[in-house]
Amino acid sequence: MNKWNIPDLLENEIRNRDIYCIYCWIKFNTESKKNKMTWEHIINDETIITRENIALCCCSCNASKGAKSLSNRLNSEYCKNKNITAKNIAPVAQQALI
Ligand SMILES: [Zn+2]
Q: Alpha-carbon distance 33 to 53, whole Å?
């Protein structure tokens, strides 16, 4: 388990699935703080630990979210500036909007 209580098996699965940020598609950088990979709970509830709710996103997308729900986030200035929309986020995040 990692510090988010994500079992190793699930963690590996998600690391293999989410090679890019699920929102802005930036490639994670392991060497610098910029584009750092962070664990994301798509629905803002840290008790929902499923492959549908756990994903990887970059630190700036994660930092932009605050307590906002995903649909509210998509209306934020951050997402508008980065052209992040319900249509171009990763399928796992789109699922959470349905
Ligand atoms: Zn991102």
A: 24
CA-nearest of 57, 44, 64, 76 to 15 is 57
Is the pTM higher than 0.70? The answer reads: yes
Distance between Cα 21 and ligand 1 center (Å): 5
- pLDDT, tens only, 40-74: 999 999 899 999 999 999 999 999 988 889 999 99
Q: Ion ligand 1 — residues with CB under 5 Å?
A: 21, 23-24, 58, 61
CB-count burial class (<10 Å; 0-12, 13-18, 19+) for 17: middle
CA of 52 to the centre of ligand 1 (A): 18
Domain ranges of the chain: 8-95
